[in-house]
Amino acid sequence: MSAGPFKVCMLGDFGVGKTSLVSRFVRSTFSDKYMTTVGVKVDSKEVARPGRDPTKLVLWDIAGRNAIDSVSANYLRGASALLIVADGTREASLAAALNLLMQARGLLPNAFAVLAINKFDLLDRWEIAPPTLTQLRRAMTVFETSAAAGSGVEEAFAAIVAGLDP
Amino acid sequence: MIDADALPPFVRERLRALLLERSHALVLGFDPDWTLREIHGDAAFHGIDTDAPAARIAALQDLFVGIDVGDDQEIPFVELANGRSVHVYLLADGESFHLLLLDADEARATQRSQQQLANEAVLAGHAKSKAIDALRNIRNELERQRARLEEANALKNAFIATMSHEFRTPLTSAFGHLRLLEQQLPPGESGDALQAVRRSLTYLFALAENLLEYGRGEAGGGLLYPTDIDLDALLADCEAMFCPLAVAKNLVFRATLERSDATTPRFDEVKLRQIVINLLSNAMRYTHSGEVVLALRWADARLHVEVSDTGIGIAPEFQARVFHPFNSGAQSGSRGAGLGLSIVRRLVEQMQGTLALQSELGVGTRFTLDLPGAAASPSTNDAAPVHGRVLVVEDDVDVSRLLEVAFEGIGLDVRVVGEAAAAIEVALAEPPRLLVFDMHLPDLSGCEAVFRLRAQGYRGAILMLSANASADARDAALRAGADRYLTKPIDFAKLEAVARELLARE
Fold first, then answer.
1. Is there a single domain that holds both residue B235 and residue B353?
2. B427-465 burial by CB neighbour count: b if 16+ within 10 A, else e?
3. C-alpha pair distances (Å), A28 with each of A22, A24, A37, A148, B79
4. Any chain A CB within 8 A of the CB of B133?
5. pLDDT at residue B219 tops 50
6. Domain annotation for chain A: domains and CATH numbers
7. Cβ distance of B108 and A7 shorter than 8 Å
8. Is the pLDDT of residue B471 over 80?
9. ipTM computed for the complex
């Protein structure tokens, strides 16, 4: 396995919190003002690996879409991992996330994928029910995350690092 | 696409200069290992320090992680660390390659503003539909709550109606038979024992009425049955009821009556008594020395009632509370249920009167009421005998016997039937002058029977009797076709008066 750096693409519908998750993970900051992403924002962070040298994650925060178009496909080239993001308060965003995952799998069959159901701090407004998450966990790694509160964010990226370097 | 070669050389040159200037074009030449060989263009605009470009070059290198730099690449709208957006092109050149950076800020701003509006509209639509769902859920929950409350209220009303019936039916029988016993004694000798029975029955009746009145609630709209009132008798009854209590507490009890209006006062007697008894009971309870005084004054068709005592008094801050139900903390040392004064206020309001309270702690309390008398009923010759047949439909043997005696007493022939169906047959075959129906009969309700009779052409007078004192029950009976509605316990004087009135109207 390569020592990195590794390209990790954030995929999800608009407004699910991809930019906020990157901001929380890379800079430990959060803003509740919604600012749509145009194109892609690229960030990077060096992460520790137990018993190994640190590695670098290059995070591609791709503008929110519910399907992959040619531009997004171009952005995905060379990605080692995908962080698929859905918004727990919008059930439709989970369907979009799973659709994106299926499409991305066609382009990147070997990429490691983790699903983050974001906005865990707004749990009282969640539309995604626990049994749905139980079903999803049988097929992939799923984290409930909150970019606002920080919960689950480090864990989700740590799972990606672990998945890249088994 | 413009054919640049077709342009005049000076135009082509000017266009090239403009495009390079506006795009802030930057070209970086690299060896295959990303060693920077050359740099051309506006490096500062793109945040690259030409003297120390390593950090920025590393960031650009990150864009091509996992990508073969031997092929041309195009990455539009890349936001770099300095916040600027650029289009990035990788141009392969044999072993080496070039990166071309073109400013995309303006295009990004345009796209962002359009995309932001569209996305926010979708998010707002989602929030709106969720809010509508939430409101719908709240409305459904309120509907369910209202249905539950209506059901509970219906149960409460049914309970009160049942209790009302349970209280009034035996009281009717007791009062009626007491009256028969009193009639059998020589005039003026009603006997101490019978007086005591009457007082106790009256007191029991008042207590029951207090509870029922409370149970009916503010919206119950209790009915008023004004009749001619004998104020002397009322005064005498109060003396008979409260003197023994006063003696037992070493209090003086005085009851006075002043009359400056020659007309006969008309009030709902049960409610008037309930008011006076409640006020006197209250005064007796909170007075430990001195006196309790009842003063009645009938003047200008208004009854002025004053109940004063030299009791413990009510502190100013508690004076408003004494009229609230279950106010037992309002007067120190209170032991009652705290219902009496709240019911007094309600009854006074029903009678369209006014109620005032004056009290001083440790000195005493005075309740002052002003009640307008009801209009006089159409005059009937109370003494003259009437003739004809009355059909009494009543399944309670005790009550039917009392009704029989009462109607025979004014000269009517009485036939009693215990079931509604049989009564309809009899009434249609031989129409009586007056039909007296109990509301609750074993086979049909009184309302159903009255409706059927009217529907089959019976035009005689119908008087409905019921233990249910609610306005709803009265309205239902009148809608079904009854002419009058009286509640039990039966006031026989009122019964006779109503019977005469109905027969006179015929």
1. yes
2. beeeebbbbbbbbbbeebbbbebbbbbeeeebebbbbbb
3. 9, 4, 19, 10, 19
4. no
5. no
6. 6-164 (3.40.50.300)
7. no
8. no
9. 0.89
Q: φ, ψ for residue B267 (rounded to 5)?
A: -145, 165
Domain that holds residue B451: 389-505
From the list B75, B81, B85, which residue is nearest A38 (CB)?
Answer: B85
Instruction: Report the candidate in B175, B169, B172 with the shortest Cα–Cα distance to residue B200.
Output: B175
* pLDDT tens-digit map of B25-75: 999 999 988 999 999 998 888 888 888 888 888 889 999 998 888 889 999
Is any Cβ of chain A less than 8 angstroms from the Cβ of B85? yes
Query: How buried is residue B488: exposed, middle or buried, by Cβ count under 10 Å (0-12/13-18/19+)?
Result: buried
In this complex, do B78 and A90 lie within 8 Å of one another by their Cβ atoms?
no
- CA distance linking residue B10 with residue B17, whole number of Å: 11
Question: Looking at the 3D structure of chain B, how many domains does it have?
Answer: 3
Average pLDDT over residues B261-280: 87
Q: Are residues B305 and B393 in the same domain?
A: no
Mutate to test the interface with B, among A1, A22, A42 (most CBs of B within 10 A): A42
Q: Do A38 and B63 touch (CB under 8 A)?
A: no
Q: Which helix (H) or strand (E) holds B403?
A: helix B397-409
pLDDT in tens, chain A (166 residues): 467 799 999 999 999 999 999 999 999 999 989 999 999 999 999 998 888 889 999 999 999 988 898 888 999 999 999 999 999 999 999 999 999 999 999 999 999 999 999 999 998 889 998 889 899 999 999 999 999 999 999 999 999 999 986 5
